[in-house]
Amino acid sequence: MLTVIGLAHRLRIPIAVAVALLAGASLIALSGVNPFEAYTTLFRGAFLDWYGLGGTLVKTSPLLLAGLAVVIPLRAGLLNIGGEGQIYMGGLGASVAALYLPGLPTLLHIVLCVLAGALAGGLWGLIPAYLKAYRGINEVITAILLNFIAINLVSYLAGGPMMQAGAPYPYSNEISEALWLPLILSGTDAHVGVIIGAVLALVAYYVLNHTTVGFALDTVGAGDAVARYAGIAVRRQLLGAMFVGSACAGLAGSFEVLGLKYRLYHLFSPGFGFDGILVAFLAALNPLLVPVSAFFLSGLKAGALTMQRATGLDGTVIDAIQGIVILFVATSLAFTFRREEWRRFLDKRKLHLAEPPVARAKAEESAR
Amino acid sequence: MPALKLRQIVKSFDGFRALDGVDLAVQAGTVHAIIGENGAGKTTLMNILYGLYQPDEGMIEFQEKPVTIPSPRGASDLGIGMIHQHFMLVDTLTVVENIVLGLRGQGMSLNLREHEKRIAEMSARFGFNIDPRAEIWRLPMGMRQRVEILKVLYREADLIILDEPTSILTPLEIEGFLENVKSLRDAGKTILFITHKLDEVFAASDRISVMRRGKVLNTTDAKDTDARRIACAMVGHDRILTVERMPHRAGKPVLVGRGLHARDNRGLEALRGVSVSVREGEIHGIIGVDGNGQAELAEVLTGMRSATGGLVEIDGRDITADDPETRRRSSRLAFVPEDRHTTGLVLEYPLWKNAILRDFGTARFSRAGVVDRRRAVEATSEWISAYDVRTQSPYQKARFLSGGNQQKLIFAREIESEPRVLIVMQPCKGLDVGAIEAVHRTILEQRERGGAILYISTELDHVLAVCDRISVMCGGVVTGTLEAHEATAETIGVLMGGTMSKASAC
């Protein structure tokens, strides 16, 4: 029994997801569609169909990187809610490097574009980190405000100075085809970004769990007093964690531009930065699970379209189900498992079941 | 007539008796101070009176009737009001709104104008000088406290409990506050005043009770006692220690602080020119009532707080500008901080991570930036057996260790860094007798090895038992240094009490 409970605790996230999908099924049924059929089309469309899988992977790339952008700073206790803004700055940085740095060798130019995006995102994230570390200003508020600035800055540039002449819609000139990221599934839009993201997740896992850098970050997250006592330069760690995290978000922006859109569009990210927070929590802040949770969430998003076409079910139902999944997962994370307490509880119950009530009352009496 | 009578109140938390049979009688219309160190049980007692906790045993009589106080609301209905250390006010509301908030019997409509008039009258009657329409966030701390008092008065409380009321006030505000307390008493209210600051007790109260280790030790009229006697009762002089101490053979000074100045977290001057020296093979004790600059002194010496003046030297080298890490590595300065839970350990870390907490970056526990987990676990296992840390394994979280075992782990980590200087701050707080002995034995062994030890404590019996020299701190200065053989509870009491008046004057 104890082992079963322990196992259930280890698997609490998948269990929560399954229960959430069941709860979602009732929502689907309420809308008058067969839930089984709806889910089947959804998952077949998202994961089992070649083009559907491509669509899922396209969305996995930014979600995964945005998830890392939350996980890494959170280890040091900073909640990076500015992923969206950092994605926009990343896209801007990559576009500028791609459009205005002519005459470079192709490979070098691609690398430069990618790094320019990461750098732009990272620097954007340094602003709230600096204000937090040196001025004590809440990073959540500054990062949210910086999101608006970044989004509108890109809108202005894409619709003004960088806009393609005669474009019907705010977007820049097209980036030279030589700079486009390689595709990974022929016939689909899936690009190499998702692979790079997965590799980064592995690197993040190793660094956070096995190196002195990870140790220092975790200690900073545990509290200011103990970190200073441990001899850690707290401010430097805060800035470093936020820079690296935001650079991941910046990378997400780069890849959107270089791998998918090939131009700088205004409003090019539909909230990937915010979804990154969901990805991070769904992964229980474990970098190894971030690719998995990003893949799952983007599958829901991509499959929703197929499902909508096949069953006529409104796509907003999927948004609602996504919300339920997050809610259930967040709740499941609050459960802790204490082997000893459970053992005592089970023993007591066994005792109660074994003894008839009268004998029990007597036993309690004599114990008193 | 006693307004409040407590008989044998007991309250335990997880087997620890925070209140161990408290007896107390408070006369109506007096200011009654309850004084004691942090952890003596004062706040637990007040929370019982305010209905936040229920006592496990014992009886409460209020206005000569036995009562149970089920909740703060129940306390308020009886006529007991409490002013917490941290104010419970809504910053964006006005004074009137805060006072009326949660007031019973208001019906569907609220006549704020009428309340405003009555509050203004009340404020004038007690000389509080408060604008009822002011928003809280605009008011200084002293004014906010008056609002808290008005809140309680408006609910017609007869007994007003003030929990550490001066801890966030400036010296000038404290003076005004003490006047307010007296005017409340003159209006016939009974005031229970919790504090650990001696000078305030004598400035405002009629009767004084000393609490220590969950008991009320003695209650006297303020005019029949003095600061020295109260200070002695607070730190206690019951010898419970059995560790044996070899004769003292001190060498040359190792750690020297010269004319140190520093500010506390509120920006007030906490150290006003402190000089100390600790010699090889010597345990130098610092004793004093809590909050007289000891914590700041330890932090300045270890580099966790910057000095605003003065020098810290080790072996004649100026290390004032060094950060804590440099002091640990180059000057071999080890530190056992006061707060095990938020400073000394990361409770969520396993023991092996806590064991390398301050050395994870050194060649001993990491290579090329990768933490050598195997070595860390090996070292932890060794320390666990060498220092008798009772635990299941090095992988257990520090949270699940008892206080004594947590402290043993911290001592293992600090001693194993082979320090020249060891600073320990209140190392026996919350430990049982066995653990206290283990801590003291470890400290004495370090002295035998020629280490220089600074032992900061508020427990007089501990300091007398292990220290070779003892300095007394009060009001941010060292008021005297004694050799162990000259030091007795009485001579130290003179130094602790003798400057109390001076400290309150500045």
How would you sum up this structure, described in words?
- The complex is a heterodimer of chains A (368) and B (506).
- Chain A has 368 residues and is an all-alpha fold.
- Helix content of chain A is 76%, strand content 0%.
- Chain A has a single domain, classed as ABC transporter involved in vitamin B12 uptake, BtuC (Orthogonal Bundle).
- Chain A has helices spanning 2-10, 12-30, 35-48, 50-75, 83-100, 106-135, 139-159, 193-210, 212-222, 224-229, 234-261, 272-282, 290-311, 316-333, 339-354, 357-367.
- In chain A, helix 4 crosses helix 12 (272-282) and helix 8 (193-210) packs across helix 9 (212-222).
- The longest helix of chain A has 30 residues, at 106-135.
- With 506 residues, chain B is α/β, with parallel strands linked by helices.
- In chain B, helix 5 (141-154) runs parallel beside helix 6 and helix 8 packs across helix 17 (489-498).
Quick recap:
Chain A is mainly alpha-helical. In chain A, 76% of the residues lie in helices and 0% in strands. The two termini of chain A are 30 Å apart.
Keywords:
heterodimer; A: 368 residues; mainly alpha; ABC transporter involved in vitamin B12 uptake, BtuC; globular; B: 506 residues; alpha/beta; Rossmann fold; 3 domains; six-stranded mixed β-sheet; 18 helices; 26% strand; elongated; disordered C terminus
Question: Mind telling me which CATH architecture of chain A this is?
Answer: Orthogonal Bundle
Query: Helical element count of chain B?
Result: 18
Spatial strand order of the main sheet of chain B: 6-7-8-3-9-10
Helix percentage range of chain A: over 70%
Query: Helical element count of chain A?
Result: 16
Mean pLDDT of chain A: 90
Calculate the terminal CA-CA distance of chain A, rounded to whole Å: 30 Å
- Got a strand count of chain A? 0
Radius of gyration of chain A, CA atoms, in whole angstroms: 24 Å
Most extensive interface, chain pair and sizes: A-B, 19 and 25 residues
Strand content of chain B: 25-35%
Count of separate structural domains of chain B: 3
Largest sheet of chain A: none
Shape of chain A: globular
The oligomeric status of these chains comes to: heterodimer
Give the CATH topology of chain A.
ABC transporter involved in vitamin B12 uptake, BtuC
From the alpha carbons, calculate the radius of gyration of chain B and give it in angstroms: 25 Å
Largest sheet of chain B: 6 strands, mixed
- Strand elements of chain B, count: 22
CATH topology of the largest domain in chain B: Rossmann fold
Instruction: Provide the low-confidence segments of chain B as ranges.
Output: 499-506
